[in-house]
Amino acid sequence: MTLARQDAEYPVDAQLKAALTQPLNALREWAANRPELQALCTQYGELAQAGTQRLLPGPTGERNTWTLLPRERVLCIADDEQDALTQLAAVLAVGSQMLWPDDALHRQLVKALPSAVSERIQLAKAENITAQPFDAVIFHGDSDQLRALCEAVAARDGAIVSVQGFARGESNILLERLYIERSLSVNTAAAGGNASLMTIG
């Protein structure tokens, strides 16, 4: 069942999404003289599902919900302004924070952006940026640079981190790889019994 069919049968709780996308709306307004960026903000905003909760079909006496939340921080690497802003629009659309290299390009962008957007961005020195906390990566650039980045990310301790690599100018970022999924099953029929048996998630 696609989300469109699911949403036609069961209501979607999108209250959290409205709060998460406020910085994206600020970026869209800032991009009044950048029609391509404005279009991307609109496109990503319509596609984004972070901050939504759906009631799933299930047997009588059971309530199942599926929630999509944003990953906490996304490392974004690009060497030109267009790609950096494309990455920014995608990350803001799902409600995550951004980690940018502390270089002239990104410092200048942070200063130019509205405060609602710049507050979502953290800068770190390029030489140790992969040692910073992040749980997803978006990269625009050459294949050799991407290979080196993937090796550095793979060498980190902890959970495996997804890396999306693109050529310069590409904008087909997969927003679904920037989500955390949470499912919760509540056995409402057990409400009068052992409370520990009521919830799984």
TrEMBL record:
Its EC number(s): 1.5.1.12
Keywords assigned: Oxidoreductase
GO-annotated molecular function: oxidoreductase activity
Enzyme class (EC, first level): oxidoreductase
Record protein name field: Trifunctional transcriptional regulator/proline dehydrogenase/pyrroline-5-carboxylate dehydrogenase
Origin species: Escherichia coli
